[in-house]
Amino acid sequence: LPTFEDFGGNVYIVADQQGFESVVHYVAGQYLKTDSSGAIVDPRLKLKKAVQEINYSKHGITVKTDDGCLYEADYVMVSVSLGLKFRRMETKCLRKMFPDRDVPDATDILVPRWGSDKFFKGGFTSWPIGMDRYEYDLIREPVGRVLLHQRAHQQTLQWLCSWSLSCRSLNLLLPFIF
C-alpha cells in the first residue's frame, strides 16, 4: 500500500453515497455468519453501539455501551478516533512543550464544529516532534485482550487503507477467537 513517504502529505477526501457501512458489511461477511441474502446475522457483531466502558483482565473482557448493555468476550476489536483516545492529552503536551511554565489544567477547549460528533471528536493524526518508530510501534500494541485500531496506527495513505489494515488486524486476532 502507498504511504505518505511515497506521495507526500496531501489529504484527499473521497465521498461514497453508500458510506462506510457497506465496507463494514463486506469485511464482516468474510468472517461472520450471513443469511442467504448476504445479510450478517452473527450475534457477535455489534453496530450502532457507543462504547462507554471497557474492563479487561487475563480472563476476558466486559464492554458496557451507553444504552446500558453489557457484553462479555474473550477478545474484542474496537475502532476509535484519536479525538477520543487522546482527549486529555492537550495539557500534558503543553506542559512538555513549555517545561519552564506553569500550565494549568484546561477548563475548556474550543473544538471546530466537525469535532462535535461523539465518535470522532475532531482528532487527526499528528505525530509529535521526536517520536520515533519504537514509540509508533508501542501505540499499535494491543492493550491486554483489546485490539484498538485507528487510522493513526498505520503508515498507509488515507482512510480506505485503514479498512485493509483492519482486515489484517482481524486476521491476526481470528486464530485466538475460533
From TrEMBL:
Domain Amine oxidase: 4-83, 91-148
Source domain of life: Eukaryota
Transmembrane segment boundaries: none
Pfam families in the record: Amino_oxidase
GO terms under biological process: polyamine catabolic process
SUPFAM superfamilies with a match to the protein in the record: FAD-linked reductases, C-terminal domain, FAD/NAD(P)-binding domain
GO molecular function, one term: flavin adenine dinucleotide binding
Family membership noted in the UniProt record: Belongs to the flavin monoamine oxidase family.
Protein name listed in UniProt: Amine oxidase domain-containing protein
Organism: Eragrostis curvula
